[in-house]
Design goal:
Rossmann fold; globular; 7 helices; 7-stranded mixed beta sheet; binds S-adenosylmethionine; 22% strand; 36% helix; 7 strands; alpha/beta
């Protein structure tokens, strides 16, 4: 099996990447992570999905490609430039709401809402405010984080943050987790009733 073959990436990615080429932004998810996100999004028909860290919309495009017509996605980004790229290419899709603002204040304001899938791809919800974000996950809901396999240019402090995050998630009694040393390193957790 070749895990990179026949990915059938969303066609919109080419246009997003063309816009990204004129920027210095390099933090978009890769195609393997995108394809996993699409598969997991497809497992939540009529789902409410949340993405923290839209970037330029690469992972957003994959999530939308997996969602059915009744599913809804809220995606939050604090960088106006990349948010604008995402919105330009994906903003006509009625299933997605783009929020330009700080993920931390979004979590504080929306803590009572419930989501069936949360892709936590930025600091709030991944390296802090993890507990409130997991509180926003439905029973049976999926919490997904990536970029967990160390790369050479990580500062030691960041490596420590990743270790702490994984330890924290491993030790919660209400999560069933799988760690994948694949793509950039992912952890997928399902929330169960304690
Ligand atoms: C890893 S990138 C997201 C990539 C995107 N999910 C993708 O795969 O294409 C993280 C994003 O979080 C944004 N960000 C950083 N701090 C943030 C915050 N406090 N609130 C919202 N977004 C934030 C950054 O501007 C960046 O676009």
């Amino acid at each position: 099996m070749n895990d990179s073959a026949n990915l059938k990436a969303p066609a919109l990615l080419n246009a997003i990447r063309a816009d990204l080429a004129a920027t210095t932004f390099t933090m978009s998810s890769d195609d393997l992570t995108g394809s996993l996100l699409r598969t997991l999004a497809a497992s939540k028909p009529r789902g409410s999905l949340l993405e923290l860290g839209t970037g330029a919309g690469v992972s957003t495009a994959w999530l939308l490609d997996g969602m059915d017509a009744e599913s809804r996605l809220i995606t939050v980004e604090n960088d106006r430039q990349v948010h604008a790229i995402a919105k330009r290419h994906l903003g006509s899709d009625p299933r997605v709401t783009f929020v330009l603002g700080d993920g931390e204040s979004f979590i504080e304001r929306h803590g009572q809402e419930r989501f069936e899938l949360i892709f936590a791809d930025t600091w709030p919800g991944k390296f802090y405010l993890v507990d409130p974000v997991l509180g926003m996950l439905s029973w049976g809901g999926l919490y997904i984080v990536d970029d967990l396999v160390p790369v050479d240019n990580w500062p030691q402090e960041h490596a420590n943050q990743v270790v702490q995050l994984v330890n924290y998630l491993e030790n919660r009694s209400d999560l069933r987790i799988t760690k994948l040393t694949w793509s950039t390193g992912l952890l997928v957790a399902t929330k169960v009733r304690p």
